[in-house]
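step=encode ok
step=design start
structure_in=
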């Protein structure tokens, strides 16, 4: 069983459509893939419709959150929610709010660059995105690549888009404990994504993860491309001491990142635990109609 529980499509900042993503997942030899677009479930229906025989789809999303850093500050964290009820109003309202803010924020970043003479058109950038897509920095990065400003998305981040750069603009993300409760109330299961990815910025302490476990966090993503061997070992030990389940996933973004589907994987027992914890009957009923279950 090869299980990858973190992947992005064109519903957020990936480059494969949801249909292309599930086909690519099957071609990569995966048995299970989770679609976890940032702050949206808009890709789920297309992924279900295109699901190749033998591949299971776990419906998910990656929630953009803020958390205490354990040292008196607040930092950005990502929370993976699985198998929650997609029509839960608290979730749809929060995701819609944040998607609207993401569009304004990306326009602001692009406008600042245009004002400084960069060849980017903020209106064209936003108009070029699918209407329900979560707008993110990778979209601006690709525009900079297309305009010949940089050679790659990664270079665009390093030179212009990283947190702390003059063009970086923040967002009002939901508090992570509130998001954990919101996902739980919708029958879903939450897993803290790439918690120790220091290459992305400051990270939470073990004490914060313990508090989140008390709030209902079910697991931590241990095997992630942005985690060092030491990070993985530390998170594995912490998860064991807190009774958290552990996952491993690629965080595939198509050609926006140089990693591949199935680069990191999750143990089948851990997926079983996620499915046991999920209590949303609506999602379970839809899942039981997947071709792979027949
Ligand atoms: P945003 O959601 O707009 O804050 O942008 C963050 C997204 O950019 C995350 O989904 C990351 O996966 C992606 N990202 C961050 N750094 C890089 C990088 N160096 N190369 C490609 N994608 C990145
Ligand atoms: Fe992303
Ligand atoms: Fe993330
Ligand atoms: Zn992700």
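sequence_out=
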């Amino acid at each position: 069983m090869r299980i990858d529980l973190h992947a992005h499509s064109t519903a957020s900042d990936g480059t494969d459509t949801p249909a292309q993503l599930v086909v690519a997942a099957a071609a990569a030899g995966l048995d299970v893939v989770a679609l976890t677009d940032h702050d949206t479930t808009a890709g789920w229906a297309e992924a279900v419709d295109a699901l190749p025989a033998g591949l299971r789809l776990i419906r998910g999303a990656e929630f953009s959150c803020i958390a205490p850093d354990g040292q008196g500050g607040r930092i950005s964290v990502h929370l993976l929610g699985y198998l929650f009820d997609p029509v839960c109003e608290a979730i749809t309202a929060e995701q819609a709010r944040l998607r609207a803010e993401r569009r304004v924020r990306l326009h602001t970043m692009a406008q600042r660059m245009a004002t400084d003479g960069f060849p980017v058109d903020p209106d064209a950038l936003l108009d070029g995105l699918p209407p329900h897509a979560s707008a993110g920095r990778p979209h601006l990065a690709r525009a900079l690549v297309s305009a010949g400003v940089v050679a790659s998305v990664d270079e665009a981040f390093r030179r212009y888009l990283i947190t702390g750069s003059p063009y970086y603009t923040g967002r009002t993300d939901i508090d992570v404990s509130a998001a954990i409760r919101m996902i739980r109330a919708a029958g879903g299961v939450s897993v803290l994504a790439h918690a120790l990815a220091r290459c992305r910025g400051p990270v939470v302490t073990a004490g914060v993860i313990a508090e989140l476990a008390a709030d209902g966090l079910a697991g931590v993503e241990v095997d992630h491309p942005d985690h060092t061997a030491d990070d993985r070992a530390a998170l594995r030990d912490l998860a064991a001491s807190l009774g958290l389940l552990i996952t491993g996933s690629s965080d595939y973004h198509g050609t926006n990142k140089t990693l591949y589907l199935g680069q990191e994987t999750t143990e089948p027992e851990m997926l079983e635990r996620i499915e046991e914890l999920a209590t949303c009957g609506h999602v379970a009923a839809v899942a039981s109609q997947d071709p792979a279950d027949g």
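step=design ok
step=annotate ok -> The longest helix spans residues 89-115.
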